[in-house]
Amino acid sequence: MNVYTKPFVSPHDLIHNHLTPKGIIFSAPYGVAEAEEYLSRINWYRFKSYLHPFLVTGTKKYIPGTTFSQGVELYYFDCELRELCNKYILRIEVKAKTILDQIITSFTNDPFWYLCDDYFKDTENLPRLRQKIAGDLSYSRMEFAKYYKANYISPKESWRTSPPFWLAMELMSFDTFVKFANAVDSNKFMYSGKNKLGDAAKQMSAKNYREMISWLLAIKELRNRASHNARTWNSNYRLPSGFVDNKNALVTDSYLTIPPVKKNKIYLILATIKLITDNLIKQRNQFSTELQELLKKYHNHSYILSGMGFPANWTSDPLWNPKN
Length: 324
Description:
With about 325 residues, the chain is an all-alpha fold. It folds into 2 domains: about 10-65, no CATH class; about 75-324, no CATH class. The chain has 13 helices and 2 strands. It has helices at about 10-20, 30-40, 45, 70-110, 125-140, 145-150, 165-170, 175-185, 195-205, 210-225, 265-275, 285-295, 300-305, and strands at about 190, 195. The protein has a two-stranded antiparallel ribbon. Strand 1 (about 190) and strand 2 form a beta hairpin. Helix 4 crosses helix 10 (about 210-225) and helix 10 packs across helix 11 (about 265-275). About 30% of the residues are buried. The mean pLDDT is about 95.
């Protein structure tokens, strides 16, 4: 373990002593002056990852002809991609919470079902999650929360200060919600040979509850990166089920006809967003249309699609076909 002793490096020194010697070209619209001003607004350790795709493999030199502007354009593409993803993930979050609340509450006839261990297969983390919700309620200044606190208590003796799930889901983060949903035991929701949580999954375009949870876990990872302005476009993500196996071969009844270039990239999560939002939004293929418009805007950068896991002929896959 070494003590970190690297000194501060100014934008001017980064350009003249680091980037230029390694082959970066500074030309309009980002000449030296513009690049220096840009690096005074964007932290170098945030921006440097957007120049990484232009490195010669196995070296610290950049591919001949690489410009600073290319890194800036990739940075802006990632910003727009995050905005697009967040726009639709927020809708998915609202829908998923609503579906789960309505189906489980109606099945159990208990708006406090999330406080009962009998409905869960994994109870280890439940006390902590429940305590967090009760704490969030106690600190909340939202009108509905204040009204509940002033007028009601929970019928659950051990959780008197906890709210019903319909109120709890308005206070909990998407991360907490997915943890609750993942812990639910779907076997406890059988009726007439069918499964109530399977009905919930179909409303989210998934084949079954397990697949829906797989999608939500993957979307949660993407949401965490997008919401915290982290590099999103070529990061690695968990594999959502229903598309390819661990060897990147199409699974039986895959939603795709063409496998991704890489299975652990954002492409498959974008596919799940497309599938889910087609059931949420009146105008089908809206997400697909906006995604294709964004990619066309940056169509000169071939490395973008491959870095995201997109196959070369991805638009010919029926999943993305606007006629569907």
